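Appendix C: a fully annotated inverse folding record. The material below is reproduced so that readers can follow the format used throughout the book. The structure is listed first as tokens, followed by the designed sequence.
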């Protein structure tokens, strides 16, 4: 009886240590009114935006090259595996005086965002710099919920072999929340996805409903001025149990203007 008791204690101890040692990957997300937040981030550094005059081509070489990509074997043959880009945000330019709009070219059509440069300069400048180096090219909208929002901006979505990690990718840094006066998560606005206070990075979402309950949690930084029909079309696409579109919705490129 004593041996059985000691053996049981050993099993319980082992299970406890195993549970303590495991960490679930957390995800930057947008909460609907019935969802519970999944806190996420793999990003660690504080945001720094520098007003520097940096050669655009040099900046792209330094920040946007996908380094360390290697070939991996899959059931469908050999493919290129995407290595997560780490961005040095200290080299960002101040682009808010140069650009105020962005046209998204997607495989479902185009839409244009007008940014709130004056009310959300930090958030806008972050997005502009990422778009300027081609960070979003090839990124998919990985989370689509009809009558709520469409979410994208995770570079892991460029690689189908990393689907289990879609929604967890970021640029390698975080920016502070910026809640401009009078800005609200209404239909057609673009807002930052996050994992809690001051954890924004590259992921964003476009509201397809009035989601004002997200105000003070998700920073609005622009609105759709053209192509809302494309946004609505994307929001109605068929999705799987994880809200991933069954037919990929891809951002081919973003043109700043």
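Designed amino acids, in order:
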């Amino acid at each position: 009886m004593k041996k059985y008791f000691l053996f049981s204690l050993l099993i319980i101890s082992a299970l406890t240590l195993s549970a303590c040692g495991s960490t679930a990957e957390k995800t930057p997300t947008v909460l609907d009114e019935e969802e519970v937040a999944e806190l996420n981030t793999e990003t660690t550094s504080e945001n720094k935006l520098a007003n520097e005059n940096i050669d655009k081509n040099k900046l792209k070489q330094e920040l946007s090259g996908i380094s360390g990509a290697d070939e991996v074997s899959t059931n469908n043959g050999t493919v290129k595996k995407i290595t997560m880009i780490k961005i040095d945000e200290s080299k960002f330019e101040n682009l808010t005086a140069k650009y105020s709009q962005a046209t998204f070219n997607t495989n479902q059509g185009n839409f244009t965002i007008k940014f709130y440069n004056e009310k959300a300069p930090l958030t806008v400048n972050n997005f502009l710099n990422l778009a300027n180096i081609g960070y979003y090219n090839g990124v998919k909208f990985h989370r689509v919920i009809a009558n709520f929002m469409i979410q994208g901006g995770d570079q892991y979505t460029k690689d189908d072999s990393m689907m289990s990690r879609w929604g967890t990718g970021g640029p390698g840094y975080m920016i502070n929340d910026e809640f401009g006066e009078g800005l609200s998560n209404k239909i057609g606005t673009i807002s930052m996805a996050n994992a809690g206070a001051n954890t924004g990075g590259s992921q964003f979402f476009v509201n397809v409903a009035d989601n004002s309950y997200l105000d003070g949690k998700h920073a609005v930084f622009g609105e759709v001025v053209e192509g809302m029909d494309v946004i609505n079309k994307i929001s109605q696409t068929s999705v799987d149990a994880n809200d991933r579109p069954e037919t990929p919705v891809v951002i081919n490129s973003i043109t700043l203007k």
